[in-house]
Amino acid sequence: MDNTRPFDVIVVGGGHAGCEAASASARIGAATALVTMAASNPGTMSCNPAIGGLGKGHLVREIDALGGLMGRAADESGIQFRMLNRRKGAAVRGPRTQADRKLYREAIGRLIDAQSGLLVIEGEVVDLLVEEGTCRGLILADGTHLRAASVVLTTGTFLGGVIHIGDQCYPAGRAGEAASNELAKRLRALGLATGRLKTGTPARLDGRTINWDAVGRQEADPEPVPFSLMTDRIDVPQIACGVTRTTMATHRIIRDNLRRSALFGGHIEGVGPRYCPSIEDKIERFGDRDGHQIFLEPEGLDDDTVYPNGLSTSLPEEVQAELIATIPGLENARILQPGYAIEYDYLDPRGLEETLQSRAMGGLFLAGQINGTTGYEEAAGQGLVAGINAAHRALGRSSQTFGRGDAYLGVMIDDLVTRGVSEPYRLFTSRAEFRLSLRADNADLRLTPLADRLGLIDADRRDRFTKLKTELDQARALLMERNLTPNEANRHGLTLNADGRRRSAYELLSRPTIDLQILSTVWPELRAIDRKAAELVDIEAAYAVYTERQKSDIASLDRDKAISLPEEIDFQTIAGLSTELVEKLKNFKPRSIAEAAKIEGMTPAALGLLIAFTRRHG
Ligand code: FAD
Hints:
The chain is an alpha+beta fold. Helices cover 36% and strands 19% of the residues. The protein has 19 helices and 22 strands. The strands form five sheets. Strands 1, 2, 6, 7, 8, 9 and 20 form a seven-stranded mixed beta sheet that branches. Strands 14-15-16-17-13-18 form a six-stranded antiparallel beta sheet. Helix 1 (16-28) runs parallel beside helix 9 (376-395). The longest helix is centred in the last third of the chain and has 31 residues, at 531-561. The radius of gyration is 26 Å and the shape is globular. The mean pLDDT is 92. The structure holds flavin-adenine dinucleotide. Flavin-adenine dinucleotide (FAD) binds next to helix 1, strand 2, strand 12 and helix 9. One of its GO terms (molecular function) is flavin adenine dinucleotide binding. It holds the Pfam family SAM_GIDA_C.
C-alpha cells in the first residue's frame, strides 16, 4: 500500500531523540510524521526517572534555548530539583530533577499533540525505501509505504534488542515492549556499520514495603530552579529520596553468584556503560569499600514504585531478591519488576556527517541511542540537531551544525562522528575544552538568537528572551558605568590592591569575595536589577577574563585547524610528543591540525608542537 501523501520528514521512534527531532522539524515548518510502535509511548523513560545532572543538565538547557521540549516537560514533572555542584563554579553546576514518570510522559505528549504540522502514526517500521542509494521513505509492518525527503531513525535500544536476566534471555526493546528485529536485519543488509552495546537497569521496588525510617533522606533544593526560560516557577510538589548502602553481605552474595550474572556469564557480547556500571561491575572493579550508595527514588507522586539508583543488575531474579534484602531499609522490600540488562545494535556514528545525516545514504539521519550514546539528554540533543537538518534538507535550506566552542551539542556530535564509540557514550563537562564559556546559565544567550533565525521558537519565547537580554544589557551598562579607586573601595570595607587604579563595578565582580549584593551596599540603585539578570551578570562578570581568553583560543583553534600536515611526517622526530601520541598519530595519519585535534588523548600542548613543527618544515 503506497501512502501517496509524502511528508517532508518522517521520524521513527517516539523516545527522547524522536520527540525532539519531530518537534524541531515541525517547528521549522516541515510537514512531519512521527512513527512509533505505540502512540502512547512518546517520552517514556526506559530507565532512571530523572532529567539533567552534570553535563546532561547543560544539554537540557541548550535544548530548551533552541525551543526544545525536554526542559519544559521536566519543569512540569520534576519532583526533586537539585542543583548539583552548587558550591563549585557556575561552569560545572549541573541542574537535575527527579521526574514523575507519568507526568513527564504526559507533558511530552501534550507538547507533541499541540505542535502543528506534526502527525503521530502508530506502527512498526520494518524497512527503508531506498532509491539510487538515497533514503526516500519507509515501509511499515502492515505494508504501508510512507514517503519523505528525509527520514530520521531514533530507535533507541530496540534494534535487535535482547533482554538478559541471569541465564534467561528473550528479544525485547525494553521491558514489556517488542524488539525491532526486521529493521535491524535490513540495516545490517544495507551495509551500514553496526555493533552491539549493552546497558542495564535495577529492579523496581514497592515503596510501601521499604522501611523509610531506617534510611537517610536527601531533600530537594528549597528553591527549585527551573530548566526552561519559559517556566516562572516550579509548581509540582517536591519530595525527598531515601539513601542507603550495600553491605558486606550484599557483596558476598554478588561475588558468590557472579558467574550467574548475564554480564559476567559470557551471555552478552556488547560493551556496557562504564559510567553507569552494574552493581556486579562495581563490586568487581571497586571492591567492598564501605558499601556502595543507593538512592531510593520514588517514580511518581501517586506511584509507589521506587527506583533504587545504583543497583543496576542482570543477576537471576532470586539472587536479586536475596541481595536486596541485605540492604538496610530494604529487608522486606517487594520486587515489582526485576532488574535486567539489554543488548542492542547501534550504528557506528563515524558513518555520519555533523548534521547526523548518513554519509553512505543521503536522506537518512540517525539520532539517540542508535548512535551508541546513553541517556535521555544525549538522545534529545542529537534528535534536535537531526530534526533541524532533516527539515532543512527537505526544505532546500543549508545545513546547521554546532562547533565545539558553541555548545555541548557540538562537543557531543563532534566526539561521536570523529572518534566513534567503544562503549555507550555519555556527556561530561570534562569533554568540553571551552567549558567556562559553555555554561548552563548562558545557554539562552548562546543559542536562542540562532533558534529565532532558524524559526525554532515561538513569539512567547522571543519576547521573554528579548526582555531578559535587555535587562542584562542594562545591568551590564549600570555596572560598567560605576567605578571606584582602591581608597574609595576601602571606605566601603572592600580591600583592593593599592595601585590607585579605578575599577568598574563589573570588573570588581570578577573577585571571588565580591558579588552583586555586596556592591549594592556601595550603589543601592543596583538593587533594582531584575533577579534573573542579576544572577546572569554576576556569573558573566566573574568569568569574563577567562571567557575572553577562551574566545581567542576558539578563534586561533579555528585558524590553526586549516593548517595541513606534510604527507610524509615522522612524528617520532617531534620532540616533546608522548610515545602514546606518536603511536596514535602514526596510525591515524592526520592530514590537518583539525584531524589531529580529534585524536583521542590529543592535548593543546601536543597540537602546539605539531603546529610549530609544520610551520618550520611545511
Ligand atoms: P528510546 O527512548 O529507546 O526510544 C526509542 C523509540 O523508538 C521508542 O518509542 C520505540 O517504540 C521506537 N521504535 C523502535 N523501533 C521502532 C520501529 N522499528 N518502528 C517504530 N518505532 C520504533 N540511560 C542512562 O543515562 N543511564 C542508564 O543507566 C540507562 N539505563 C538504561 C537501561 C535500560 C534497560 C534501557 C532500555 C535504557 C537505559 N538508558 C540509560 C538509556 C536511555 O533509556 C536511553 O538512552 C534513551 O531513552 C534513548 O533515547 P532514544 O530516543 O534514543 O530511544
